[in-house]
Structures are given as C-alpha cells and as structure tokens.
Amino acid sequence: MFNLSRTAAQNVTARFFSRTASMQGPTVAVVLSGSGVYDGAEIHEASAALVALTRAGATVQCYAPNVPQMHTIDHTKGAPDESQSRNVMVESARIARGNIKPLDELSSGAADAVFFPGGFGAAKNLSDFAVKGADMTVIADVERVIKDFHSTKKPIGFCCIAPMLAAKVLGNSGVSITLGKSDDGSGKWPYAGSIEAAKSLGATAVEKAVNEVHIDEANQVVTSPAFMYEGQFHEIHDGVAKAINALLGLVKN
After folding, report:
1. Which of 54, 93, 114, 229 has the fewest Cβ atoms surrounding its Cβ within 10 A?
2. Model pTM?
C-alpha cells in the first residue's frame, strides 16, 4: 500500500511540474541599439515593448552590440557632441537596468522570438541606413541573428525604422513590412522616404497607421510604425504593445 501511495504521489508531482513548465511564457530577446532616439534605441518604444512582454508573461533578455556608437547626440540640441564617445551596449544597459548581454551571444537557441525597437540607433549603430540609405549594410551580428531566427522559423519583430533591417537582410526572401504611411502633406510621416528604400531592397512595404500592425506570416515577421509617425506617447506605446502581442501570437502558433 505504501508503495502504491508513493507511486501515486510521484505521478501527481510529475504532472504538476509538467503543467507548470507548460504554463511558463516564452523567452524573447530584445535587441537594443543604445539609449536615446537620435543616437540609440528609442526609449519609449523599448519601454513599451518590455512592458508588453512581461505583462504577457514572457521572460525577457536584452542584447546589444558591444561596439562604439556612430556618434553621440546632444538631445537638447539635436546635434553631435564631439567631446563624447559612447559604447552601444553600455548605453543600452541603461534601458535594460543592467541586465544586458553582448549581441554576439544571441542565437535562435536562446529565445523563442526576437524584437528590435527603433530609434536612430537602428539606422546608425545596427546598420548605416542613416548615412547610406538604400545602399546600407547591416552589422554582422544583426544580420546573423535575423537570418538565424528566420531560418529556424522563429518570430522576429521590428518597429519604427528597424524594419529596414528586415528589408535589407530578408528582402530576397520576399519579406513584407510596414514603415508607416506615405507622406500625405500633414507632416505626420516625416520618414516616409524609407518606404521606397525598402522596396528597392526587395521588400514589400505595406502602409499602416500608427495603431496598426503588419504580420508577414510566411516569414514570421511582425512590424509596426511607432515613431515613424509624429504621434503622442500613448499612441506609440499602444501600437508597440499590439506588435508585441502579435509577435507572441506567432510564438504560440
């Protein structure tokens, strides 16, 4: 009788831990590009992504390339500060509250999905789109990570200008993205020129409003305009949250 009771208890315990493991949320990597809209990751986009991820029960690990920034911008002036030189990972650690790893440690085996917030850091530190436009290159580790997650069919998310990374790396795979909407004369879409640049790289650019998300199910890519639109903080926050929820939806599927 004792042996039977012990066996029953072991079975219950095994089922409990199995159920608990299955209830655990996915692990999502967030790739940052510094700290601050003009020379790093857009802080509000990054924060919105982190909030939406943990609210949904995901485990988050932040990564950034351990390289110098292209330059440092004085955000009070919007002009380069030649007296300072900053490191992308060190600055990204401000957003990650110190919990940051070098990007060269990230692979698809470490996470169920990956998300790239925008900000000029995506166009200056993760790539040189800000300088070269459609003739851009993407830094080696960013290209490696995107190709790795894509080849293993794990979801990849981008917002704001970061979808240009997908256009460059996955353009030949027929990726479709959104960079917001074409210039309608309202001044609300100041970076609309990126749409044509993305198309020239082979990507399909789908026009979406700030509160909309584009999902390329074939390539497992999620994109949202965020601050490609001159909107209010809550509009960007809500749009990024929708992108995160769509990304997590692909993980579950």
Report:
1. 54
2. 0.90
